[in-house]
Protein backbone atom coordinates (compact mmCIF):
# COMPACT_ATOMS: atom_id res chain seq x y z
CA UNK A 1 0.00 0.00 0.00
CA UNK A 2 1.28 3.39 -0.95
CA UNK A 3 0.98 6.09 1.73
CA UNK A 4 -2.63 7.29 1.81
CA UNK A 5 -2.89 10.97 2.70
CA UNK A 6 -5.36 12.08 5.34
CA UNK A 7 -7.95 14.06 3.43
CA UNK A 8 -8.17 11.60 0.51
CA UNK A 9 -11.76 11.67 -0.76
CA UNK A 10 -14.06 9.37 -2.65
CA UNK A 11 -17.66 9.44 -3.75
CA UNK A 12 -20.29 7.09 -5.09
CA UNK A 13 -23.68 7.95 -6.51
CA UNK A 14 -26.64 6.14 -7.98
CA UNK A 15 -30.26 6.58 -8.94
CA UNK A 16 -32.58 5.25 -6.24
CA UNK A 17 -34.40 2.31 -7.82
CA UNK A 18 -36.99 -0.12 -6.47
CA UNK A 19 -34.29 -2.60 -5.43
CA UNK A 20 -32.77 0.06 -3.12
CA UNK A 21 -35.96 0.64 -1.11
CA UNK A 22 -36.68 -0.35 2.48
CA UNK A 23 -40.03 -1.74 1.29
CA UNK A 24 -38.10 -4.35 -0.70
CA UNK A 25 -36.69 -5.68 2.59
CA UNK A 26 -40.11 -5.78 4.27
CA UNK A 27 -43.41 -4.73 2.70
CA UNK A 28 -44.46 -2.97 5.90
CA UNK A 29 -41.60 -0.46 5.48
CA UNK A 30 -41.69 2.81 3.55
CA UNK A 31 -40.81 2.95 -0.14
CA UNK A 32 -37.66 5.04 0.48
CA UNK A 33 -33.89 4.46 0.24
CA UNK A 34 -33.03 1.77 2.77
CA UNK A 35 -30.42 2.31 5.44
CA UNK A 36 -28.44 -0.76 4.29
CA UNK A 37 -28.25 0.72 0.79
CA UNK A 38 -27.05 4.07 2.15
CA UNK A 39 -24.40 2.26 4.19
CA UNK A 40 -23.24 0.29 1.13
CA UNK A 41 -22.93 3.57 -0.76
CA UNK A 42 -20.81 5.04 2.06
CA UNK A 43 -18.56 1.97 2.02
CA UNK A 44 -18.17 2.27 -1.75
CA UNK A 45 -17.22 5.95 -1.41
CA UNK A 46 -14.49 4.97 1.09
CA UNK A 47 -13.24 2.28 -1.30
CA UNK A 48 -13.06 4.86 -4.09
CA UNK A 49 -10.99 7.17 -1.83
CA UNK A 50 -8.24 4.58 -1.37
CA UNK A 51 -8.25 2.71 -4.71
CA UNK A 52 -5.40 4.79 -6.19
CA UNK A 53 -3.16 3.88 -3.23
CA UNK A 54 -3.61 0.10 -3.23
CA UNK A 55 -0.86 -2.08 -4.63
CA UNK A 56 -1.58 -5.00 -6.96
CA UNK A 57 -3.18 -7.84 -5.00
CA UNK A 58 -4.48 -5.59 -2.22
CA UNK A 59 -8.08 -4.97 -1.31
CA UNK A 60 -9.89 -3.56 1.69
CA UNK A 61 -12.49 -4.88 4.09
CA UNK A 62 -14.97 -3.01 6.24
CA UNK A 63 -14.33 -3.19 9.99
CA UNK A 64 -17.02 -0.98 11.46
CA UNK A 65 -19.53 1.68 10.58
CA UNK A 66 -21.57 4.00 12.75
CA UNK A 67 -24.04 6.21 10.93
CA UNK A 68 -27.25 8.13 11.32
CA UNK A 69 -29.85 8.03 8.55
CA UNK A 70 -31.70 11.30 9.09
CA UNK A 71 -33.85 11.92 6.00
CA UNK A 72 -35.89 9.81 3.59
CA UNK A 73 -35.14 9.62 -0.14
CA UNK A 74 -37.85 8.59 -2.60
CA UNK A 75 -37.28 6.45 -5.67
CA UNK A 76 -36.18 8.37 -8.74
CA UNK A 77 -33.88 10.69 -6.80
CA UNK A 78 -30.10 10.50 -7.10
CA UNK A 79 -28.28 9.59 -3.90
CA UNK A 80 -24.61 10.39 -3.34
CA UNK A 81 -22.20 9.23 -0.66
CA UNK A 82 -18.92 10.91 0.17
CA UNK A 83 -16.01 9.66 2.25
CA UNK A 84 -12.97 11.52 3.56
CA UNK A 85 -10.02 9.76 5.15
CA UNK A 86 -9.51 11.17 8.65
CA UNK A 87 -7.01 8.77 10.24
CA UNK A 88 -4.40 6.22 9.17
CA UNK A 89 -2.93 3.64 11.57
CA UNK A 90 -0.80 1.32 9.47
CA UNK A 91 -3.25 -0.65 7.33
CA UNK A 92 -6.30 0.56 9.28
CA UNK A 93 -8.13 3.55 7.87
CA UNK A 94 -10.87 5.73 9.31
CA UNK A 95 -13.29 7.85 7.29
CA UNK A 96 -15.92 10.51 7.84
CA UNK A 97 -18.88 9.59 5.66
CA UNK A 98 -21.92 11.56 4.52
CA UNK A 99 -24.82 10.93 2.16
CA UNK A 100 -27.08 13.29 0.22
CA UNK A 101 -30.05 13.15 -2.10
CA UNK A 102 -31.27 15.74 -4.61
CA UNK A 103 -32.57 17.94 -1.77
CA UNK A 104 -30.56 17.50 1.43
CA UNK A 105 -28.06 15.61 3.52
CA UNK A 106 -29.58 12.24 4.45
CA UNK A 107 -26.90 10.63 6.60
CA UNK A 108 -23.50 10.91 8.25
CA UNK A 109 -21.10 9.02 10.44
CA UNK A 110 -17.77 7.20 10.55
CA UNK A 111 -16.42 4.09 8.86
CA UNK A 112 -13.28 1.99 9.38
CA UNK A 113 -11.61 -0.24 6.79
CA UNK A 114 -8.48 -2.40 6.75
CA UNK A 115 -6.23 -2.95 3.75
CA UNK A 116 -5.59 -6.67 3.21
CA UNK A 117 -3.61 -8.94 0.93
CA UNK A 118 -6.46 -10.35 -1.20
CA UNK A 119 -4.85 -13.78 -1.73
CA UNK A 120 -4.18 -14.31 2.00
CA UNK A 121 -7.68 -13.09 2.86
CA UNK A 122 -9.22 -15.53 0.35
CA UNK A 123 -7.07 -18.39 1.67
CA UNK A 124 -8.33 -17.75 5.23
CA UNK A 125 -11.90 -17.63 3.92
CA UNK A 126 -11.49 -20.94 2.06
CA UNK A 127 -10.12 -22.56 5.23
CA UNK A 128 -13.11 -21.29 7.18
CA UNK A 129 -15.57 -22.63 4.60
CA UNK A 130 -14.26 -26.15 5.26
CA UNK A 131 -15.64 -26.04 8.82
Topology:
Elements (H helix, E strand, L loop, with lengths): L8 E7 L6 H4 L9 H16 L7 E12 L8 E12 L2 E9 L4 E13 H12 L2
Antiparallel strand pairs: 1-3, 2-5, 3-4, 4-5
Note down, in words, how this protein is organized:
- 24% of the residues lie in helices and 40% in strands.
- It is of the alpha+beta class and 131 residues long.
- The protein has a single domain, classed as Hotdog Thioesterase (Thiol Ester Dehydrase, Chain A, Roll).
- A five-stranded antiparallel sheet has the order 1-3-4-5-2.
- Strand 4 (92-100) and strand 5 form a beta hairpin.
- The two termini are 32 Å apart.
- The mean pLDDT is 96.
Beta fraction: 35-45%
CATH topology: Thiol Ester Dehydrase, Chain A
Number of strands: 5
**H/E element order:** EHHEEEEH
Mean pLDDT: 96
Overall, the morphology is: globular
Write a concise keyword list for the protein shown above.
131 residues, alpha+beta, Thiol Ester Dehydrase, Chain A, 5-stranded antiparallel β-sheet, 5 strands, globular
Please summarize what this structure is:
The protein has 131 residues and is of the alpha+beta class. The chain has helices spanning 22-25, 35-50, 118-129, and strands at residues 9-15, 58-69, 78-89, 92-100, 105-117.
Amino acid sequence: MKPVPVGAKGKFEQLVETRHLASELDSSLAAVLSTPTMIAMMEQAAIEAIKPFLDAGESSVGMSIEVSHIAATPPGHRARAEAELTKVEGRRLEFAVRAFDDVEQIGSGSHRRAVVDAAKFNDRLKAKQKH
